[in-house]
Design a protein that fits this description.
The chain is an all-alpha fold. It is built from 22 helices and no strands. The chain has two domains: about 270 residues, no CATH class; about 240 residues, no CATH class.
């Protein structure tokens, strides 16, 4: 029964239909095109990421410190463990979404727990493997490949995330339990997660050396973490020195603690699923008021409630604007270091500061992709939207406007704050603001079209849509592609024109991209809605 449950849960989470949002057999051409786009984005990501670590590996090899790459791999795996477990453990282990279906079945609760834990770990391993593959390649390329070393690496890679999963899953449960008993529990959860994430980023930043590039600046930090957290050091020694005794230490320590954890939480899982999340509710009595609003405004307000009603949705789609706002406010206090930091982070110290700011702003805003997933998040209630007396294009425009509300105000404020910190001329600030507005319009319309083409209404939890859907993946890398197009315009025009004209040419480029996207939304939305 355990294997059958694992197979069923894996099919729910990893199947092509889950990823694409539609039956691949019925839409082969569409599936091939979207599949090629997904493969291309993964190749581009792995290639760019791989080059960074290939170069870092060369530097470390010349220093005789190849093994530090293993510390990088450990920290990045820890990061994947943090995000996946924090957002999935509470709803996937302690509060089953399908508990009412599973509990009456003649299946022991322990079997269900083991199956769900197995699927959670498989998802973690797959994600961590994709993100750390360039690091692994760089390490074995520069330090030398051996079959024994690879075997030790694979075994250690399996056991490295186990203790972090234990700690983070309990943290996830604690946040869910604590906030569920408070008013505005979702807002409090979102705030706590943002505080944790920003705190980790600030700690990393404070310990980096801004005089070096971003990766080499993390060497001392990661070496320090490895010394504090002994299993990372065991993994490093086991792989680099092919030390079987350190591999045994790693396997026993992590395996025993994880095994004890899974055994002890059986009762806790049973109790939490029986009682469910208890939400504090307040009864109020007041006069019923009717307010007349436009259809688009009603859609926007619905999107606001949906956004703040899901911690996962808000954190993933709102992280870009939040970190951009934090960075722009912090720039007021670090004017002397800001230009150096931006140059090193972007990897182009000689680039004009205005372009560095635009890259930072563009990268942050590209991570705001609510139109790419908000239609899918309607789920099985999508039929209700179709039955309402509202044009489909107004539904999509409402979703786009909500995304613009998240992006444009923060983008404009950040330009002003960076302008004050770096004494950017007023005309340049105004042109940068124009670029922010047009860029936001382009990627919001592009994201909406991606969701129309790859809807995913049949899902078990929000994670499948927010983090694992084709629409989310295409939206993020599509935003980066639009940034690259702007970069190409700047590269070829910067030597021919003054900066003001270059900004105007970039604005014109975004306008040219925007027009066909709007036309597609106008002409195709009704047709696509009827097919959904």
């Amino acid at each position: 029964m355990y294997l059958k449950l694992v197979k069923l849960f894996l099919k729910e989470n990893i199947s092509l239909k889950r990823l694409m949002g539609f039956d691949v057999k019925k839409s082969k051409t569409k599936a091939v095109l979207i599949g090629l786009a997904i493969v291309y984005t993964i190749i581009v990501f792995v290639g760019a990421f791989g080059y960074m670590f290939y170069d870092l590996g060369r530097i470390l090899h010349e220093m005789g410190q190849d093994e530090i790459l293993i510390s990088f791999l450990c920290i990045y795996t820890l990061g994947m463990s943090f995000f996946i477990t924090l957002f999935r453990a509470s709803g996937y282990l302690f509060y089953y979404k399908d508990y009412e279906l599973l509990s009456p079945l003649p299946i022991h609760p322990r079997t269900v727990l083991f199956a769900k834990m197995t699927v959670l770990m498989v998802l973690l391993y797959l994600t961590a493997f994709i993100f750390t593959l360039p690091i692994m390649f760089s390490y074995f390329y520069w330090s030398g490949f051996s079959l024994i070393g690879l075997l030790i690496f694979i075994i250690g890679f399996i056991f490295i995330p186990l203790i972090p999963v234990v700690v983070i899953s309990l943290l996830s449960l604690g946040i869910a339990t604590l906030t569920a008993k408070l008013r505005h529990s979702k807002l409090i959860s979102i705030f706590l997660v943002f505080v944790i994430m920003i705190g980790i980023m600030m700690l990393s930043f404070s310990m980096n050396d801004v005089e070096q590039n971003p990766l080499t600046g993390q060497i001392d930090l990661f070496k320090g973490i490895a010394k504090v957290y002994i299993p990372f050091d065991w993994f490093r020694i086991a792989v680099h020195q092919q030390s079987l005794i350190h591999l045994v230490y790693l396997v026993l320590a992590n395996g025993v603690i994880f095994g004890i954890y899974v055994y002890l939480i059986q009762g806790l899982v049973h109790k939490t699923n029986q009682r469910g999340v208890r939400v504090n509710m307040r009864k109020t009595v007041g006069t019923l008021k009717y307010q007349k609003r436009s259809q688009v405004t009603a859609v926007v307000q619905k999107e606001v409630k949906r956004f703040f009603g899901s911690t996962l949705y808000a954190v993933n789609s709102g992280f870009g604007p939040v970190i951009l706002l934090v960075a722009s406010v912090a720039s007021l206090f670090f004017q002397s270091k800001l230009e150096t930091i931006l140059g090193e982070a972007i990897g182009a110290e000689n680039m004009p500061i205005e372009m560095m700011i635009l890259i930072l702003v563009g990268f942050s805003l590209a991570m705001t992709y609510t139109p790419a997933i908000s239609l899918s998040l309607e789920g099985k209630s999508f039929w209700m939207i179709k039955s309402l007396p509202i044009e489909p294009k107004k539904v999509m425009y409402g979703k786009i406007i909500f995304n613009l509300i998240l992006m444009i105000p923060v983008g404009l404020i950040s330009i002003v704050l960076f302008g004050i910190s770096l004494k950017i001329p007023l005309l340049s600030q105004l042109l940068m603001m124009l670029l922010v507005i047009l860029f936001s319009l382009v990627i919001s319309c592009f994201d909406a079209i991606m969701n129309l083409l790859t809807p995913k209404f049949n899902f078990v939890n929000d994670t499948e849509v927010v983090k694992q859907s084709a629409g989310a993946l295409l939206a993020i890398f599509g935003g980066f592609a639009i940034m690259a197009i702007n970069g190409v315009v700047y590269y070829f025009m910067s030597d021919l024109m003054v900066e003001t004209l270059v900004f105007l040419m970039m604005a014109l480029t975004n306008l040219v991209l925007l027009i066909p996207l709007v036309l597609i939304l106008e002409k195709k939305t009704d047709i696509i809605f009827k097919k959904l």
